[in-house]
Specification:
- It is built from four helices and four strands, in the order βαβαβαβα.
- It is 44% helix and 20% strand.
- It has a four-stranded parallel β-sheet, with helices on both faces.
- It has 109 residues and is an alpha/beta fold.
- The longest helix has 17 residues.
- The chain is globular, with a radius of gyration of 14 Å.
- α1 packs parallel to α2.
Length: 109
């Protein structure tokens, strides 16, 4: 399953707690771009480093929470980590980190 960081913080925490309570066999990918992109690029209500803490507090085992920086140079490492979690029998969460292209553009000018 995939969910954006802002949507996770607004409506994804409760379902994750439910999945953790039953150790649902799934991998949740949180696409963390540090912004609420679909409504104009506002900053999310919680900074990226806190998302891992929230996921752990929901009951996801620490050894099945992965944070991946989504850059081309990390492709092989990210692929390996993602495949590991997809093969895991139980709940795992992968948090992908990369700033939204729409918020990066103005900074580059």
């Amino acid at each position: 399953a995939t969910i954006g960081d802002s949507t996770f913080l607004h409506s994804g925490i409760t379902p994750l707690i439910d999945a953790a309570s039953t150790n649902t066999n799934m991998t949740l990918v949180i696409l963390d771009n540090s912004t609420t992109a679909m409504t104009g690029g506002q900053t999310t209500i919680m900074p990226s480093p806190k998302i891992r803490d929230i996921v752990a507090a929901c009951g996801v085992p620490e050894d099945h929470i992965q944070e991946l920086t989504m850059l081309p140079k990390n492709h092989a490492e990210n692929k390996e980590a993602m495949l590991k979690e997809l093969k895991h029998e139980g709940l795992s969460v992968v948090i992908t980190l990369r700033e939204c292209i729409q918020t990066v553009k103005p900074k580059k000018k």
